Amino acid sequence: MTGKRALVTGACGFVGSHMVELLLSRGYSVMATDKKLDGLSDASIVEFRVSDITDSETLKGLFDEVDFVFHIAGLFDYWAPYERLHRVNVGGTRNLCEVALDHDIESVVVWSSGSVYGVPDEIPAGETTPLKPLNNYEKSKVEEEQAALKFHERNGLPVVILRPASIYGPRSRYGTAILLFLLARGQLPAIPGDGGSRSATVHVRDVVGAAEYLADKKNAMGEAFNIADDSRYSVEELLLAAAQMLGVRIHKFHIPILVLNLVAQLSEWQARLKGTRPRVEKESIRYLTYDSLIDNSKIKASGYELLYPDAMLGLRETIDWYKREGWL
């Protein structure tokens, strides 16, 4: 698709920067926006404007002649208080949709999260599986979805919801990336928990690829789509493979979750005293204790073909990138 204009919010972040790169490679003109210009390698060939989604005044003027909106800006932080998560993820999305109503937009693709199912009622969780958020971040993403879909139902705003699995790939610093960093530094000497739980994963290039693919599909409007690869690896299998790729040693014995939770509590206590972020978060550990696989059959049935159906392929490429860039 060429000759189209896209707005990307959160353009300087991990996922946003990949979204910008993909759109440029496919001939879009791109309006990129974020709270500050930082880390966007394609800044010289995109139009960039500073904005804050929590301040609707800063969003005005961004939508001129825009065909598609890729709304990635948000707060992904288990450490943040609910009030801040709600203000950014829910309030910010409402602000963006409100401004979008005044323009002839073909679609607004909104980033939610595959974690909205909490501990799923069924494995893998499909798009109709009940949403049961367990922490403040998950709650804010459920409410963000609801806010965006209300604009679709009441005002006809063409909204598509993405529910990505745990996203990994070049430039990631949070989520799955934390386990890789801990491994590389020798700070994860053994398998956390029983190692048997299976987490849904997806490469960042498949997330942005699916977003661009769905953006002009009329039958996708008002729908939610899980975005995940085909992998069914256990935590233990992934960590052993990652350790081998990193060239580090990890023992095959298991660290009880109780011990990990105590470590996290200590880390969070120290962070509060110092006014910093904890190195280990209790909420991150919780995701290692249950299966959280999500069903990707809906996005595949739509015609999208995964670039990285097997997490092992993407994991090796990601680790190679981290090494090359000196992140490990």
Written overview of the protein:
The chain is α/β, with parallel strands linked by helices and 328 residues long. The protein has a domain at 5-168 and 200-230 and 293-308: Rossmann fold, CATH 3.40.50.720. Helices cover 38% and strands 15% of the residues. The protein has 10 helices and 11 strands. It has helices at 14-25, 82-100, 136-155, 176-184, 204-214, 235-246, 257-274, 282-286, 297-301, 311-324; strands at 5-9, 29-34, 47-50, 68-71, 107-111, 159-164, 166-168, 190-192, 201-203, 224-227, 251-255. The strands form 3 sheets. A 7-stranded parallel beta sheet has the order 3-2-1-4-5-6-10, with helices on both faces. Strands 7-9 form a two-stranded parallel sheet. A two-stranded parallel sheet has the order 8-11. Helix 3 links the parallel strand 5 and strand 6. Helix 2 (82-100) runs parallel beside helix 3, helix 4 (176-184) packs across helix 6 (235-246) and helix 6 (235-246) runs parallel beside helix 10. The protein starts with a strand and ends with a helix. The model has no long low-confidence stretch (mean pLDDT 93).
